[in-house]
Amino acid sequence: MSEYVTRAGLKPLSAALAVLAAASLACGLGGSSAPRPTPSGSPTPIIDFPATARAEATPTIAEPDTLPTPVAFDGRACLITSSAGQLTCVDAQGLRLFTEADFTLGDDYATDITACGDRFAITYYDDVVLFDGAQFEQIPVELPEEAHGLDTVTCDPAGETIAVGAGGGFVLLYRDHAWQTFNLQEQDRDDDPEFTDVVDVALPGDGTLWVALGYNLARWDGSHWQVFAQGQDWGAAVYFSQLAVAPEGVVYAASDFGLMRFDGELLPIDNSQAAGALGLAVTSNNILAGHGFGAFLLDRAGATVAAHPVGERPELPFAASIYSVALDGLGRSWLGTTYGLLLVDETGAYHLYRMSNTTMADNAIDSLAVIGTPPMLPVVEHAPGTLTAVILRDNKPLADMPVVICALDYALETPCAGDPDFRTTRTAADGTFTFTDLPRAAYSMHVQIENDAWTYLTDADGYFLSPVLVDAGSAVDLGPVGVDE
Asked: What share of the chain in percent tops pLDDT 70?
């Protein structure tokens, strides 16, 4: 199970524990326990579907008088990317990355996004920003001294009330232009009184506030808290990873053992494929859950409608993890993964969007939200780039050593092995290595030194070398770099 520890390191502790729990469950059930691959340095611009998939996805040409009415793509999808936490949205105007030139926090690291009525709510360290596709409204948040920044955000269905979770065990509720702060350490029922983890928050629209606290759930009714816990509302210990609200206000909770829903009491839903969900969405007809094993579309009773496990298609490789999901007005599944943005359309066809075939700023998606029926992302063709450097060790060239680069740095037996498109080469006698014909991406690099040991590269000053952007048609020369020893 070591691959899950590596993957979980990409997210906060709550997600890490959830992924570990999901891994343990899947192994115990003998289900899809395959590890998740990482995206590679050579993303696939346009996927050529197998013949069967193409046939299913190709509509029958009707007679002129019976041609179907074209779908009006009236909606917007927005996502937060991992590396810089920037906001990117697609709508009828196309795909756009928002920066400081668009609003004050445009270049700050956003942590979460959710649909909020006809707008989006986005969290930054100590701000909430509302965005309607054109205007940004910044709502400052006064965090308690003990809080460590905003982690998660939710809105009620009408978009009138906002709840945010903050590191350190705090939840803040925004209603009638004022914030109310709760210290959830007072409601936590786990065995660690020194640490409270607010995993997720939910607002069903009935005036209540729900909080997932890792090992228990808490519900605020406007005057007091009701706490649901092991031995009282369920038997074995569970870890909650996500909350979601159905259109009619029913609250769903994902744990490492599956799903529960609250209909006056907590009721289990019998489908382990949703266990440990890191992304959860509920519509009037369906439940969509995503995690390290893939994405699974269920009906509201819990029966599997469609399964998208990792490792079975090139668009969702073995090392990919799904951190955010959404269902749009056509019932299409939007999956924010560590490999790219994957859209599964109403025919079941896959559409993969990455830096290599769009203007996205990053391949890895932390959070996404959808309103209405957005258009697909516009696909563009980028010229390939090159990357070169010279590796020195003790100021001497490191000759004839293997070098590997990848866009999704996920290690199995060796670095980058989880990326299906990783690239390898060897250093020349003068320590130089060069990669050519590289798709647009940000690349991590490793070199193999003595005793089969792999190490990251460092900059000339000995600091860890962050992933290097090879933009469209660019020739990147890093010059002298070192090894991390």
From this structure: 85
Phi, psi angle pair for 20, to nearest 5°: -60, -45
Half-sphere exposure of 351 (CA within 13 A, CB side): 16
Q: CA triplet 234, 20, 256: central angle to 5 degrees? A: 25
Statement: residue 94 has pLDDT above 90 = yes
Kindly state the tokens that stand for 125.
């360290």
pTM: 0.85
Task: Read off the pLDDT of residues 245-262 as tens digits, 9 standing for 90 and up.
Answer: 999 999 999 999 999 999
Mean pLDDT of all residues belonging to the chain: 86
Nearest to 287 by CA among 249, 322, 331, 257: 331
Output the CA angle 409-411-412, nearest 5 degrees: 150
DSSP state of 200: E
Structure tokens at 161: 């009330």
Whose tokens are 């990792």? That residue is 310
The dihedral built from the CA positions of residue 457, 460, 466 and 471, taken in this order, carries a sign that is: negative
- Residue 325: in which H helix or E strand, if any? strand 322-327
Distance CA 467, CA 44 (A): 19
Nearest by Cα to 431 from 447, 415, 444: 447
Distance CA 26, CA 183 (A): 34
**d(C-alpha 342, C-alpha 404), whole Å:** 26
Residues 6+ apart with CB under 8 A from 87: 78, 79, 80, 97, 98, 106, 110, 113, 122, 131
Q: pLDDT band at 72, cuts 50/70/90?
A: low
Nearest to 137 by CA among 155, 152, 125, 119: 119
> Which is more confidently placed, 107 or 48?
107
311: closest CA among 85, 25, 31? 31
Q: Which residues of 450-470 are buried (b: 16+ CB within 10 A; e: fewer)?
A: eeeebebbbeeeeeebebbbb
